[in-house]
Each structure stands twice: as structure tokens, then as C-alpha cells.
Amino acid sequence: MRGExxxxxxxxxxxxxxxxxxxxxxxxxxxxxxxxxxxxVLVKPTRPIPSIVTQLTGIAPExxxxxxxxxxxxxxxxxxVGSAPWIAHNAAFxxxxxxxxxxxxxxxxxxxxxxxxxxxxxxxxxxxxSLTQLTGFEIESAHRALYDARATAHVYWKLWEKLLVLPVPxxxxxxxxxxxxxxxxxxxxxxALNEHGVTAIxxxxxxxxxxxxxxxxxxxxxSDQRQRQSSDQPISRETVRQLLGDNSPLAQVLPxxxxxxxxxxxxxxxxxxxxxxxxxxxxxGTGIGKSMGYLVPAALWAIQNQDCVVISTNTINLQEQLLxxxxxxxxxxxxxxxxxALLKGRSNYLCPRRLxxxxxxxxxxxxxxxxxxxxxxxxxxxxxxxxxxxxxxxSDEQFTWSRFSAEDSECGGHLCISAxxxxxxxxKAQQNAKNAHLVIIxxxxxxxxxxxxxxxxxxxxxxxxxxxxxxxxxxTNALSTKLDQQGLERNLNEAxxxxxxxxxxxxxxxxxxxxxxxxSFAKDIYAALRDMRALTARLFGNCRHVLEEAAQHGDSYxxxxxxxxxxxxxxxAQAQNTWGHLREFLDILAYKMKEAAALLRRLxxxxxxxxxxxxxxxxxxxxxxxxxxxQLEAFFNAPDANTIYWINQxxxxxxxxxxHTAPLHVGSLLERSIWDQxxxxxxxxxxxxVNGSFEFIQQRLGAEIAGTLSVESPFNYRDSALVFIPSDxxxxxxxxRYQQMVERGIIExxxxxDGRTMVLFTSxxxxxxxxxxxxxxxxxxxxxxxxxxxxxxxxxxxxGFRTSEKAVLLGTKSFWExxxxxxxALSALVIPRLPFQPPNxxxxxxxxxxxxxxxNIFALPDAVLRFRQGFGRLIRxxxxxxxxxxxDARIRTKRYGAAFMEALPDCTIQTSPLATLADTAVKWIKRxxx
Length: 930
Ligand code: SF4
Description:
Layout (H helix, E strand, L loop, with lengths): L4 E8 L9 E10 L2 E9 L8 H7 L3 H4 L5 H12 L4 E3 L2 H10 L8 E3 H8 L8 H7 L10 H20 L3 H14 L4 H10 L16 H4 L21 H7 L6 H4 L7 H16 L3 E5 L5 H16 L3 E5 L2 H15 L9 E3 L9 H9 L5 H16 L12 H11 L8 H7 L5 H11 L2 E5 H9 L10 E4 L5 H8 L2 E4 H25 L2 H39 L1 E2 L4 E4 L2 H4 L2 H33 L8 H26 L6 E7 L7 E7 L3 H9 L4 E6 L9 H7 L5 E5 L5 H4 E6 L8 H19 L3 E4 L3 H16 L4 E4 L6 H10 L3 E5 L16 E4 L10 H7 L5 H18 L10 E5 L3 H4 L3 H7 L4 E5 L4 H13 L1
Parallel strand pairs: 1-4, 4-5, 6-16, 6-17, 7-9, 7-10, 8-9, 10-16, 18-23, 18-24, 19-21, 19-22, 20-21, 22-23
Antiparallel strand pairs: 1-2, 2-3, 11-15, 12-13, 13-14, 14-15
The structure holds iron/sulfur cluster.
């Protein structure tokens, strides 16, 4: 849409349009990418401006003291906009404030926050600041109305240009979907078609991506097939050592390569394990070249035996490093190609059949239209079908994706694969894995392969599990479930949508007697669905009461673990009663959905529109209902002994209640699927031992039968790492004094080092409390604080910290591991509290119950392992230097403190007053740098 347009932005005293006031209006009129007029008006509010708003916008109470009230300011805006369409980023917010004052209600409004995710499906963020950066516009001062209005105008124009270059059939399909679903973006799509000379949306048009081969490329049929040797041929230990030894060809391709004895020991021990079919746990300290240490014997085994070796990791970062860096380097060691493939779970791939079928009928809701439009734009940019390349926002988009993903249920299998001309992305990924020597997967997929009825990994007998210290948690997460009211209602709405679509389809394609009969069948279902929605609301209301009765308050939100006391409470009995009623309805509904599917099959000879997609959708919906029914039945009536159950209240929305499950023990599962089944599994990590013993991890993972090997880091920690323990810190229980000293320590340290500091917290609440105090103080010295409390992703925060000249990074759980910032960008690591798990964490609490001496046998070793992980973030290369500050006095004062100290490598340790920290750190880094 072009012509005269107005972009606007409002600054307000808060987020509630019913009570908060507008304090600034900014608007720009623009034509094309040229701004022709501007308006900036400060407004005097009827309520005080909160200090957080002043901090964010720079608008202080004195700035608006003499400004016009809203009644005088708004007419200036309405005169400025006239009848032009207006655009805002998150127009719902600005619109709600304007609607309250009945301003600009008749103008067409465009939301760039709605448009951007469709036209930029691969962008990682859609905030105004991110979009301006992405589209090359420098925002002068974010959170001031005029600047944000200018930025919005620019972003809109870039989005409009992007829309215009899309293939016309795609714009037509988006317009047709918008028209049928009353999607508010219809005028934009119509305007874009107009630019292409299309003045009306035809009812019939040639669709882009109508055939599977239009969507995805055919498979690479050239790649060789593996022919597994009939018997295992042992690999030569000597060859492994030569490949990584003094004259390794790696020296030609890897600058700075040198023989590392620890790496040689690791690689040859893995060769022994593969040859002699035993399991091995390898703790490989930082700097020994762990990945090459296992890739070389794994590749040699796979090539020699034409076998597949699976490499399982926990993080995408490591998968990328293996595929893009380490495995290409391996090629220099072998005469034959080392073929590697990445395989993800089915839900990560788009199913072309489901997408094609869904597009045969027009979407019933604007949400569905939005998602299909986004997928179509994405397919013009990427032909992988891999979910990691599209940004799915929120549970609605994720739910819609699940309808188009290659999930097992209703997958057409071999017949469909050939009907889809073998372009199905999941099938292609599986084929690549079948022919690969090294198959890279993650821990979650490893587990779902083991627990699924049909294994989707190629058969394998040797596996390397890297990032092995995270295996228990990764499996716990993979096998955990969560159900909330919205999720259950979404299943009910989906069933209603499908029944409604079937009713319409039968009306136009089936004999009248069937259509009529189905209409009355549908009527009963709609009535049942109404009752079910009411029962669902009541069930979650009952759960809130259970929570109120039994809640253990953690640092931020209440949790009720369903132990025997909670299960025998009166609140729980009420919830069970409600569930009993809802279960009856769910059983009937799932049965009726199956009946509807059977009717569709019976009527297959009739020309019923969208019959195939309806059939698949109805079957899938019935399966979803039955799966929710099974989860809820276990939750309320038939708990499994190896499962933990709990109810949570939302961290930010107290009305939000969710029901959770997680496995109690994963060791037995690993025993069944890995230790008892595979010839050789090697589990490795930089931290597996607690105080020189593998016993804890072996016990947690059921890996008592595995051999062990410890390979020490080649780094000289005594020269590179100073562990500073403030001698005058109070214990964390002395809350106020402790907190003041934490804040003071971080501020003084970061100021002395010009940032370059990462702080690892054990809770969000503590992080937020600290961030609020230190952020403005450090800003005075030009030091930026990156912290998780602003909702930014881990990747964004790390990137900001790495690239800023002076920065401090505050992180919680996920930052204790896998952060790799070599060099001086990270010179100090602060650990405010020892990383004990919160006692009210339901998984931790349930697992603790299992031990008589849970502190010494479970909580302490678990915390020591985390502590070692955190410590490992500091020294990443031979030349790194830095300081670790442990601010938890318990490391000095408690007997168990020794376990943490003994877990550290041999570094320099200093215990001195906190006041000396900054000076000591500067001197240490200067001294060791010389
Ligand atoms: S084989 Fe399965 S995943 Fe692939 S296109 Fe067919 S239904 Fe979809």
C-alpha cells in the first residue's frame, strides 16, 4: 500500500489503556520512502510518570508539566493524519489508547508487528529496534515517539517492498486467504496485487508450490550406499595415534595443530572400547581437543566397517561445530569421504503433503491464514523444510506448525514418499542418515528413537554421547509434558473446526441424507464442546485451589508437587471429580471423531471437497484428544510410579495454571536403550567427576558397568586462574547485607576491568534484583549490562556481550554451561551463590526423596558438578587469564565448602576482604598477561 501514509507512536505512563495516560505523540507522514511531514507533541498526563518510564523514554515529569492535556493534543494528531491509513508497530497497543479517546477509529490501521513475521519469516526478532537494524535504519533514540514513528515508517516501507517482489500467485493466495478469514491485512495484499495490474482476486488461480517438487528439491541420489561388513573389523590403535600424532595431516589444515597426549589417550581408549565392545565414560578437560579425540576413532570405525556411528550432543552449537568445522577437517585424514548427516525429530520437518492438502481449502481463521502465508513466504527463501530456519512465535504458531509437520501420526509412509516424488524433507534426512558414516543427533532424539515404536535412526552399535553431563536433564526435558487450559481448549477448537469443515464439505459433495444426518450429529458435538469448555475452565480453577492449599513458594511463583498429602486434599478431590465429568466427554468426543473419519472413508466415492485433508485432520484430532485424556487420567487418577507430577502457577500471570509431568529416574531407561543394547557407548564431557570419582554420574545414568577415563586439561590453571574468595562476605541468609556486598563487588570489579565480567546466578529473582541496582550505576561508566530479565534470548545476550566494548553479562542456569568466550572479552566470572538446586523444584525434590542422605549423596554432588561447569566458562584457551569470584561465604564456613574447593583444578586461591577485589583482579590480569 502506497500513497500518503502516516506512521505513529505513543509513549504512555504504563501498559494499561484503561488507566494509563498518553505522554507523547509522534507521527510522520510519508510517501514512498520519503518523510514529508512530522508531528511531535508532549502531553500532560493526569497521573504521575513512573520512574521506570522516565528511565526508558527520558521523559521526566517536568518535561510535561506545561504540556497540553490529551483533549488539546489529540486533535493535532487527528488533523495531521486526516483520512490516511495509519501504521504502528504493535498497533493494538496504540490503537487501544486512541480508541479510549475515540481518535482515528475510522482510519484503516496497519500493524508492522503483524506484517513483519509473515514477510520476514526467518528473522530472529520482531521488535522495532531489531527490525530497524535488519533493514538498515539507524534509530536515533528508541522509546521516543517521533523517532519510533520514523523507524516504523521505514520498516513498513521495507516490508512493502518485500511484499511486492513476492511471486504474484503467492500474493494472490495470501489475499484469497485474507478475504475468506477476514484477516485485517487484506487491503495490503489487494494493493500489492494492484501494483501488479491485478484489480480483483480471482476465485481460481494457479498456485505457487502446488506440486511437491515445487516446494523441495529432489534427494541427492548420487551419494554412495553403505554396505555394512558382515563382522566387525577392529580398528588399529596405532593408526588412531598416528592420525592425531606429530605428523598428522591435520597440521596442514588446522593452524596451530600440535600433538596432545590427552587427546591421544582419549582417542586410543575409544578405539579399545569400540573394538572390545565395552562402554566408557571419558572426562576430557578443556583444551584437550575432545571432539577430534572421538571423531577420529568414530570415523575410522565407520569407514572400515561401512557402519554408522551416532554422535549425540545436547546443543545446536556443538552440532554446528561438528558439521561445519570438525568433520570437514577430518577429511584430510582419510582417503575416502567421511559422510556425515544431521537428523532431527520428525516435528522439525515440514510435511509437503499436509501443506498441499491444507491449501486446497481456504483457512477458517486468520491465525491459520497467517501461518500458511508465513510458510509460503518462507518457502520462497528456503527449501530445507527445517523448522530451525523459520521463527515460530508463540504457542499458536507452534500448534499450527504441528499440523503441517512430519509428526508420525497419519504419515503416509512409503506410498506417500513416492507420491511426493521423494522430496519429503524428513524422508530425505533419513536417507542421508542411512548412508552416512557419522549421524549427528541430539539427546532428545536419541531417547525418542529408543522409546518410539518405529525406530527412525539407522541401525547402529557404537555411539558417542558428547555433553554427557547434560544427558539426564536432556532426557528429563524430552520426556516431560505440560498441559494448560489454552492447550486443551485449542484441541477442542480444532475438533470443532474440523467438524464444521466436514459439515460444509458433505453439504456440497455428499448425498443429502448423509449431509443432513451429519448436520444433526455435528449439532450434538457442538453442544458437547460447549460443556467441555466450561468443564475445562472449572478443572483448571480446581487446580488453582489445589495450588493455593498446597503451594510451596519458591523465589518467584508457587508450585504444588502431587505427593500423597496433596493427592488426599479436598481441593484435589474436587479436581478429580471435575476431571471425571470431562473425561466422559473426551471419550465420547474422541469416539465421535473416529466415527466421522469412518463416514468420510465410506463416502470416498463421492466428490467431497478436501476429503483427504479432512480425514487426516480428524484422525489426528482424535489422537490428540486421546493423548490429552491419557495425560490427564494419569495426572488425576492413575499416577505412574516413575513419574513426577506437579501444578505450576505462571511466573508473570497468576491466572495461568499448568500441569506438568517429568520422569523420576532416567537411569533405567538408559540401561534398557543404551547400556544393555549397544556394543559400545562412549559418554564424554569436560565435567563428569565429583571429587575425583565417576560414581555420582554413573549412578544417575545407570552406567555402573561403564569403564572410566579421566584426561586432564593441559592448561596451567595456577598461572591463568585466580579464585578470589571474599573473607568478609556474610552468608546469603543475611539477605540485605549479603545483597549489598554482592552488588558492590560486581560494580567495583566491572568498573576496574571495563566490564568483561560474567555473573552466574542461581535464580531469576536474584538476577533481577541485582540487575536493577547495578545497571544504572555501571551505565555511568559506559558499561552495558546484558541480562536475561529483558526477555532476550541467550544467543542475543551472548552476541551483545561479545561485541560490546565494555559489558557485563548476567545469566542464570543456561549460562553455567556451553558458553565459550575465549580471550579478554571475558576476564572475570562471579558466582554469587553456590549452585544448589532450589529445594522446591519439583523434579529435584522428588529425586531427593529417593535418598536417605539426600544432601550428601544427591544435592551436594549435583551442585559441585554445576560449579565445575560454571568455573569452566572462564579459561577457554591456553592464553586466557582471569579471576573467578565466589561470593558465597558457605564455601569458607561450611564443612561441605571443601567439596567445591577440591573440585577445582590446581589454580591460585586468595581469600581477602571484598574491598581488595578490584585491585587484586586488575593486578592479576596484568601480571599474568605479561
Ligand atoms: S511421507 Fe509422511 S512426512 Fe513425508 S510427505 Fe508423506 S505424510 Fe508427510
